[in-house]
Every structure is written in structure tokens, then in C-alpha cells.
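for the writeup, i need someone to sanity check this before i put it in the appendix. the sequnce is what the collaborator sent (i think, or maybe the updated version? ugh). structure was predicted straight from it, no edits. if anything looks off just tell me and ill rerun, i have time this weekend
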Amino acid sequence: MELYPLKFKTEYKEKIWGGQKIRTLLGKDFAPLANCGETWEISGLEPNSSEVANGFLAGNTINELVEIYMGDLVGEKIFARYGNMFPLLIKFIDAQSDLSVQVHPDDEYAIQHQLESGKTEMWYVVDADANARINVGFNQNINKQILAQCIQDGTLEQYLNYMPVHAGDTFYIPAGKVHAICKGTLIAEIQQCSDITYRLYDYNRKDAQGKLRPLHIQEACEAMHFNMDHNLPVHYHPVKNRTVQLVRSPYFAANLLDFDQTVEKIYTDMDSFVIYMCLSGHADISFDGGEECLHQGECILIPAAMDEAVLVPESHCKLLEIFIP
């Protein structure tokens, strides 16, 4: 039987900094968790490979389907590059309090240390409280010696580049860039399929057992890129009923589609799967052989073998469109 648009079971993650916006703003029920910091919507990361929720392939994991359908699911060049592991991790993140100041390794560091891959990521701010902010990079030139001293002195935050954030802001976070998601933000995150995080600073915060969470200062310093460039939000102009590019990198591309009219999509020349991540509203997705409805807080994957689809919004809908260029 032919492939079709795939929906997946959400995996909910309790986090010390998590809150309630996954439920109150996205309408996703994470009971019995008290707070939810992350949802993993589509993941190729074992042992958390996402499970299909719809159609005759329900119950299979995405990596099982990559092994079976190969380029028909992900695209021929993508399968040749990544093999049987789906190459992205798609999340929602709700920060009720600040996340740790952290850094992720790049591919070169990952290869040297036998890790699954580097972790370049991007954020799209779905919602932000008044006076919410995030950290991306440093606010001045810094090196390993200065960094080691300010960590020892407890003055690291003075060197961090904090910026106010609002709904719709977008940030590209290449591997090696110091960063921190801060309280009051709900974020859609797209990243390489890796869960490697090195914490530099965690506000002396204790976990539920009263223990300080571990830091990874040596690894973070080794993996970090110390340059100051590209610390600003992504600059884009939203246009109603038009697909607008947000980010394009070797690891993923992301577009914004804010629409209240029917949109026809042609995928013939892409050689990639396409993921739609619904930020608000809902839409019907019609394709040769059927139809699926995509609601706020959900994702759907269009297999690479599909040539076209028609997106029909129910009044108004906002989507992220994600693929590998």
C-alpha cells in the first residue's frame, strides 16, 4: 500500500522548568504529569523513535518506516546521507522558568567523541509573556580563559547576550552557540536528531531530590564557538497566504505559512519529506487517496514520494513547513 501523510503519538517530558502552556495554549493533555517542559512530536532518536498514530501503519515507529520505505519516505539523498535514522527532532518547549545556560556540539565534535550527531537548532516563538527574553551568544568578545574565570566568579550572566522576545520571533542556533530559553516562552523547536546538551550554568537550581543538576563545563568549553556574530533574530516579512522562508541550513529548512485561503502545494522537485507543524487554528490536508485534519499543536509528515497536497484552513491557520533542502 502507498504511503500517506503520517501523524505521530506525542511524547510528553516532565522538566524541572516546565509549565502548563502545552495544555492551556496548545490544547494537549499531558496528564498525569504535573508540568510539561517538552513534547517530542516527531523524533528519530532511539529509544524515543516516534510511533505512527494514523492509518494502516499505526504502531510502527518512524525509524522502522525509514528502513522499509527508504527514499520514498524521506527522500533519496536524505536516505543516502542518514540511513535508517530519521534525521530531525521536532518539539514544543514550555519554559515556566529559565532553562540552563548551555551549548550543543557540532558534527565534527560529535564524530570525535562517538556521539549520534551535532545539534544545530532553531526556535519559533509561539507565545511570550510580557518582558520575556532569551539568550543567544555573548554580548562581548570572550575566550576560554575569561569564560572559566566568570564561571568561577559566578558572573557568567553578565557576558550573555539577552534579547526581549515576542510571538513570531525566530532564532537560528548553530551548534556551538551558547544559549538559554528563558521563562515565559512557548517555543517550537526544530533540531538535528540529537539530545546532547552541555550545561554551563543552572542558577544553583536543585531537582526534586534536592540535588544540584550536573554541569558539563569542560565539554561545553571544548564544544563552544566563541564568536559574537549571528546573535540577532531571523529577519523576515510575513505575507498572508504566501509561504515565507524563515531558516535554510544544511540540516533543515523552515518556512512560515499564515493562511486563510486554500493553498496548493507541489513537492515534485524537493526530494525530501515535508513536516507541517500547526501553531494555531487547524486545516484539512487533502491528497490523492484521502484527507487528514491538522489541529493546533499537532504535526503531520508528508512522505517524499507524494507529489502534491491541498491545504484548506478552517477560517485561519498558521503552520511551520519543515524539510531538508
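The helical segments are 21-24, 62-69, 71-74, 76-82, 107-112, 144-153, 217-223. The mean pLDDT is 95.
thx in advance!!
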